[in-house]
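From the shared-data thread, chain only:
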Amino acid sequence: MRRIDYMTVAGIVAGIGLMAGSLIMGGNPKLFWNVPSLMVTVGGSFAAVLINFSFQDVKNVFGTVKQAFTTDLMDPEELIELFGELARKARREGLLALEDDADRLDDPFFKKGIQMMVDAIEPETIRQILETDMAYMARRHEIGQSIFKTWGNLAPSFGLIGTLIGLVQMLAKLDKPEALGPSMALALITTFYGAIMAYMIFIPLAGKLGLRSEQEMMLHQMMLEGIIAIQSGVNPRILEERLRSFLPAKPKGRQAEGEDVVMGEAADRQF
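Structure, as tokens:
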């Protein structure tokens, strides 16, 4: 099930809100609205992105940007529990009994792996196919991140270009001293737009997409190892512990607290 990433939404809303509040408190916010400056900064940097990448890559990235705002990745602990159940079922009823479970899975990668295992494909072949899928998935993710990083690097440069254009136009009005101040303000707005685009939107989005890619790659690596382990007949408890090693270790205090709770519950059951 797809869930909203509230951290991304809150970050952007808070950033825009604080910026808008600062402009309103500082005077007339209309001074910061200039269409020609937007054309140079937004339009110019986007045109440079089109030159740097293929049209298909740019088209695809608008589809993947939603991953920065939502996530449908499984919880790793739920995945470990699911693999434990599948391993126990495979031991009781055989690998063919997992065919119905494969049909209920939403993740295409997971479903494909389970289906190949049910079809009795050799473990080494399953590993090669799934690792190839992971490699191409990582490549697609890298292109998406690269587009936003490049756009984030280009936007301040186009802001500077817009400022230079404004300065040239300002120098052409040296015979009108009263127009120099407003012209200088307009010239600096493009630099402002470029900095906002780069440091509030594009570079953070590239970072969130990179984080999401790492999470998905870890889940797929866990699925790959789990599928191979079930096919090899590994003990379900050993399988769960092996998959749990992918997760970061819990703080010792929290772990000890959890063990105390478990021991307390066990003692309660004894009495």
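Confidence is low (pLDDT under 50) at residues 253-271.
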